């Protein structure tokens, strides 16, 4: 399966292949930090964001809320990845 992932360190977004053995956080292919978490998309204000991990070991909230408008967000799709610099 594939997850759309965002880096909390540098903001890079990519599609990460995941198996039962691979788990968050993922290593960012751009900055090398283990700071990649599943990207979410707010249906209300269309903001894409990486939720703040909570707990120990850190986990994403089950249903993250949008940092901008507070609405419940859903996992981002591949088409939500920011295409900055892709052209
Ligand atoms: Zn990064
Ligand atoms: Zn929102």
Structural key phrases:
87 residues; mainly beta; four-stranded antiparallel β-sheet; 0% helix; 30% strand; globular; binds zinc ion
Cα distance spanning the termini: 27 Å
Q: How many DSSP E strands?
A: 7
Q: Quickly give the structural class.
A: mainly beta
What are the bound molecules? zinc ion
Give the helix tally. Answer: 0
Strand order of the largest sheet: 2-1-4-3
Major beta sheet summary: 4 strands, antiparallel
Q: What's the short version?
A:
By secondary structure, the chain is mostly beta strands. It is built from no helices and 7 strands.
Characterise the protein shown here.
The chain is mainly β and 87 residues long. The chain has one domain. Helix content is 0%, strand content 30%. The chain has a four-stranded antiparallel sheet with strand order 2-1-4-3, with no helix packed on it. A three-stranded antiparallel sheet has the order 6-5-7, with no helix packed on it. A hairpin with a 6-residue loop joins β3 and β4. It is globular. The N and C termini lie far apart (27 Å). The model has no long low-confidence stretch (mean pLDDT 91). Bound molecules: zinc ion (ZN) (2 copies). The site of one zinc ion has 9 residues, from loops.
């Amino acid at each position: 399966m594939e997850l759309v992932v965002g880096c909390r360190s540098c903001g890079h977004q990519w599609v990460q292949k995941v198996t039962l053995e691979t788990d968050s956080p993922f290593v960012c292919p751009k900055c090398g930090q283990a700071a990649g978490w599943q990207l979410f998309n707010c249906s209300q204000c269309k903001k894409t964001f990486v939720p703040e991990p909570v707990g120990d070991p850190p986990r994403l909230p089950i249903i993250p809320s949008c940092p901008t408008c507070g609405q419940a967000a859903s996992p981002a799709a591949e088409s939500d990845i920011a295409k900055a610099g892709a052209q």
